[in-house]
Amino acid sequence: MNRGRFWLTEEQFTRLKTLLPIDTRGKPGVDYRRVISAIVSYW
To answer: Please, are residues 22 and 42 in contact by the beta-carbon 8 Å criterion?
Structure first.
C-alpha cells in the first residue's frame, strides 16, 4: 500500500469495512477506501 495515498491504515479500514454496504444491485461498486480518504481529507 502506498502510505501517502490513503488516510486510513489497513487495520482501520478492515474494522470499518464491516459497516459498509455489500449489496451488489444497481451501479457497480466504488472503491470505498478512496471515498473515505476523500471525506477525511476534506475535513
So the answer is: no
Condensed to tens digits (0 to 9), the pLDDT of residues 1-43 reads 444 667 788 898 889 888 887 777 777 777 888 888 888 877 6
Task: Kindly provide the b/e burial profile for residues 15-42, where b requires at least 16 CB atoms within 10 angstroms of the residue's own CB.
Answer: eeeeeeeeeeeeeeeeeebeebbeeeee
3-state helix, strand, coil in the chain (%, to 5): 45, 0, 55
Distance in Å from the first CA to the final CA of the chain: 23
